[in-house]
Amino acid sequence: MIKRKITQVVEGIKTSDGGGVNLTRIIGTPELNMLDPFLLLDEFSSDNPDDYIAGFPPHPHRGFETITYMMNGKFHHQDSAGNEGYLKDGSVQWMTAGRGVIHSEMPEQTEGLVRGFQLWLNLPKKEKMIDPAYQDIHTEMIPVIHDQNGSFKIIAGTYKGTTGPGKSHSPVFIMDMNIHKNSECVIPISSGWNAFGFIYEGNVCSDQYLSKGQLAVYGMEGKIYYKTEDNAAGIFFAAGEPLNEPIARGGPFVMNTREEILQAFSDYQEGNFK
To answer: Global pTM?
Structure first.
């Protein structure tokens, strides 16, 4: 078996977003600006209401998809396309901004733990101006494989013949892995795809030793190997086929040229995000 090499290990930076939600940004930083097709990865984890109670008031997006995985907590989603959903323990919200949408994500709790991830997935150039869409993926819709090595929750893509419910506009694989202590697993990934694993609990040996709070970026060839010793490990894992297209960013908009970014700001200011 050819094992994929780790090409970079990064740790996130503490920041805030939305109305003042405290979080850790892991992709979308000076150290790791993006990992095509992934534009951003945020981890939010707190049982202090001051860290999340302000939520994410209405704000616009264009040109990509947001995937919010709520491990613990309750948030309410509304958007300008008329979609509405409730994020609860173990559920996923998959929003395609397309040509433009205004949405909000606000807490439905005033105490207790809020924990999860938000991943931004780029849209191919030819699909950046499609109509907005929304996938409200309830916990019971997400398959979980249990074996002697742990549990594997498949959000998108296919693992061991089981396919997750998330529908993307380019090939991706997203999974929440919980590996038992003294166990090992092998994740086959298509050749040429980018991949990362973020360790959110415990520690694990892959191509090298990884501990809680570290994200490993992998090379593009071989299978990904994880082994635990005297502790279990939780890993948020994603892989995707690179788009290999120009990227232009402007706040909440991600397009291919600077001119398209300026047009997005103009369209938003003129009230064209409906």
So the answer is: 0.96
